[in-house]
Amino acid sequence: MAQARKAPAKAARPVAQAKAGTLAKPAALAPVIRRPPNEALRMALGILLLAAITGVAPMALAGQVFGYWRISLSPPALTLVSSVPVYDAPLAKARPMVTNATVHVVSIPGGGTAVATLQPGFPVQVTRYATAGGIRWAQIRWAGPTKAAGGSGWAQATLLQAPTASGTKPIGDLAAFSAAIARGAREAGSGFAASLYFPASGYAYRTTTATRTVILGQQIIAIVLVADYGLGLAARQPGSINRDLVSGDAAALTFVYHAVGGAPGMSAFLTRHHITGFRFASDPTQSTATIQGLALFYSALTAAPLVGPDDQRQIFALLAGASKVATDYAPDSQIGSGALFVTTLQSGKGYYTIAAGQLQPASGHAVVVAAISSEQATAATSQTALRAFFKPFIAALG
């Protein structure tokens, strides 16, 4: 007998069924994962270890991976400034410019080694531009008063401008004249200072120590001699008095110093000719000056004459005959019709040698030089140190 067919099974009831007369509950939210305290601690320590090894940025990403925070990667993005120079193409033609501030020239855009320092108004030529660290740089070159003078390097472009109607003021440090001269200055020691001036071209070079004040000692002889001629007194004095003066005779120095008015008279004479940096004492050998002031004095013998041409020739002849050791520093051919007055003195800080004057070769460049090597243990070492500067200096004049 056939069995009756079974009715299909009823659908399974929902897990959650609304009770009669009540609203249905919303779907349950995703459960919050709560990590055990020891697991969270292990994750935190892992993030810190990763940061110590690779930096802060990986630490931030690790925190996101472990679910501690989320980082938005949407703009704005950080702008990174590269310090690697990006060079423009070289200019088709060098562009004349002048410095409008003190420029410290370096070997590569943005840094490298120091090359030279140029003061405002120094004429240069720009040959190329580059960008480094977000700063615009210009590759420059410059000339000087002699064939051996000049240099090249990189300077911030904002420190350069087109030449102006007021002209240029080519003033720089010794490295701006010649790298070899700068090395010679370093070999002369920390007590070295110098100031150079080329009357024909107006180029001037000096160390930062050229403003140092020194006791003149016998160097006062040249200043007193010029004042004697400049005030018109030499023609009325005994013919031998100035020869005695330059030979170092103390009585002759005292006589002429008082004849020109002593300290007040000397100050008035130099002030009238706009020469600064001197301070005169009742004892003329205790008078002081800066190395830059000495160079200004010898420059005035040409640029703004303190005396007439005939008197100038007599003064140089007297000084050249008195300084027998001058040829240890410059040959007769370079001194020419000028004079280099060299003296060595002793102070509380040791020995120092001063060489100051004007070189006037028959063919070549006239130049004013005032240089000192100080704080040396002996007279010989001070003289040797100063010759270390004069050797490359004389070579650069050729």
What does this protein structure show overall?
The N terminus is likely disordered. 32% of the residues lie in helices and 24% in strands. The protein has 12 helices and 17 strands. With 398 residues, the protein is an alpha+beta fold. A hairpin with an 8-residue loop joins strand 13 and strand 14. The longest helix has 19 residues.
Tell me the strand percentage band: 15-25%
Could you say which overall geometry the principal axes of the C-alpha atoms support?
elongated
State the low-pLDDT regions, or none. 1-33, 49-80
Please describe the biggest sheet, giving its number of strands, its sense, and whether it closes into a barrel. Answer: 6 strands, antiparallel
Order of helices and strands: HHEEEEEEEEEHHEEEHHHHEEHHHEEEH
Give the proportion of residues in helices: 25-40%
- The pLDDT mean sits at 84
Number of helices: 12
Secondary structure category:
alpha+beta
Number of β-strand runs: 17
Q: How large is the radius of gyration?
A: 40 Å
Distance between the termini: 139 Å
What distinguishing features does this structure have?
398 residues; alpha+beta; six-stranded antiparallel sheet; six-stranded mixed sheet; 12 helices; 17 strands; 32% helix; 24% strand; elongated; disordered N terminus
Give a quick precis of the structure.
The protein is of the alpha+beta class and 398 residues long. The chain has helices spanning 37-54, 56-65, 174-177, 179-187, 220-230, 241-246, 250-259, 262-272, 291-300, 309-322, 332-335, 379-397, and strands at residues 86-87, 95-99, 103-108, 111-118, 123-132, 135-142, 151-156, 160-161, 171-172, 192-197, 204-206, 213-215, 278-279, 288-290, 339-347, 350-359, 367-376. Strands 1, 2, 5, 6, 7 and 8 form a 6-stranded antiparallel beta sheet that branches. A 6-stranded mixed beta sheet has the order 9-11-10-17-16-15. Strands 12-14-13 form a 3-stranded antiparallel beta sheet.
